[in-house]
Amino acid sequence: MPSAFRQATRALDTALTLGFKGLFEIGDLGVHPALVTDDEVGDVLLQRYLEPVLALPGGEAIVKTVERYLVNDRSVDITARELAIHPNTVRQRLGRFENTTQRSLRDTEAVVELWWALQRRHLTTP
């Protein structure tokens, strides 16, 4: 019983924090319960992926471009249309991100960690 209660509590906390509606079990929420509760990992990933980029001139635009690129299934053309910028500008911003973080956006582990950092930023930014 304690395990079931703990899982139900984590599912509820996760759903409330992220604004999910409906009925959920812990397994339905994927990695989101860890994202919501593991502040230390989230903070380390923020420091690794976002803080160095945000310190650059135009860093906010780079982060926004990278985030939209991930949302758009890593499509440069869709991201360019969505942001109303040239595809070469998207490529240039992605390159600046990769050069600054020393991580490739073609590396699955880097993309997962970056996604976590972006989600953590949304959770901690008012």
Give an account of the 3D structure.
- There is one protein chain.
- By secondary structure, the chain is mainly alpha-helical.
- The chain folds into 2 domains: 37 residues, no CATH class; 89 residues, Orthogonal Bundle (Arc Repressor Mutant, subunit A).
- The chain is 73% helix and 0% strand.
- The chain contains 7 helices and no strands.
- The longest helix has 17 residues.
- The model has no long low-confidence stretch (mean pLDDT 89).
Brief rundown of the structure:
With 126 residues, this protein is mainly α. It has helices at residues 2-18, 32-37, 39-54, 59-71, 76-83, 87-101, 108-124.
End-to-end gap: 36 Å
Determine the number of helices (DSSP H or I, runs of at least 4 residues). Answer: 7
- Tell me the name of the CATH homologous superfamily of the largest domain: PucR C-terminal helix-turn-helix domain
- CA radius of gyration: 17 Å
* Overall 3D shape: elongated
Briefly note the CATH topology name of the largest domain.
Answer: Arc Repressor Mutant, subunit A
Overall number of structural domains: 2
Q: Bin the helical content.
A: over 70%
Beta-strand percent range? under 5%
Number of DSSP-assigned strands:
0
The pLDDT mean sits at 89
Low-confidence stretches: none
Secondary structure class reads: mainly alpha
Question: Which features characterize this protein?
Answer:
mainly alpha, 2 domains, Arc Repressor Mutant, subunit A, 7 helices, 0% strand, 126 residues
Task: Please render the helix and strand layout as text.
Blueprint: H1 2-18, H2 32-37, H3 39-54, H4 59-71, H5 76-83, H6 87-101, H7 108-124
Helix pairs in contact: 3-4, 3-6, 3-7, 4-6, 5-6
